């Protein structure tokens, strides 16, 4: 008895290729299972890295590591003072949202807005970040700055990406909350 060639039938009358085919079909499902496991593992790690990225951005925003450029408006132009006597903002008013009607006196100190307990204006808003935005006085002008929030800060429908001067009565939207500077 010598070696049987793969194209010769075995004892059961089948060719040797059938046995090899069965062997390959048993290996393929194992390969598919392993690839599926690896795919789910990759998706899990992508989710973990995405969650860590959000947490990291909230932490860096909370530490205030941004550099403020005074006197710059949107587009990089220098702000021009308006002639005549202007009304200066004296209070911050919540016009829409859960805290509508709330007023905060402006005394020159920065106003931190967000869900954190130590914020000046604590928002109970699912769309606001822990440290969402800051209003700060520069000279006699108030500027709004987004602190790396997830959903953004809007000054009269324009997304705040750099510190922007806030005119009187112009709405600032943070999540579902709208605030304005009033005289």
Give an overview of the whole structure.
The chain is α+β, with helices and mostly antiparallel strands and 183 residues long. 26% of the residues lie in helices and 23% in strands. The protein has one helix and eleven strands, in the order αβββββββββββ. It has one helix at residues 16-63, and strands at 91-96, 103-105, 111-114, 121-122, 133-138, 141-146, 153-155, 158-159, 164-165, 172-174, 177-182. A six-stranded antiparallel beta sheet has the order 2-1-11-10-7-8, with no helix packed on it. Strand 10 and strand 11 (177-182) form a beta hairpin. The protein is rod-shaped, with a radius of gyration of 31 Å. Residues 64-79 have low confidence and may be disordered.
Structure keywords:
1 helix; single chain; 183 residues
Could you provide a short overview of the structure?
With 183 residues, this protein is α+β, with helices and mostly antiparallel strands. The chain has one helix at 16-63, and strands spanning 91-96, 103-105, 111-114, 121-122, 133-138, 141-146, 153-155, 158-159, 164-165, 172-174, 177-182. The strands form two sheets. It has a six-stranded antiparallel beta sheet, with no helix packed on it.
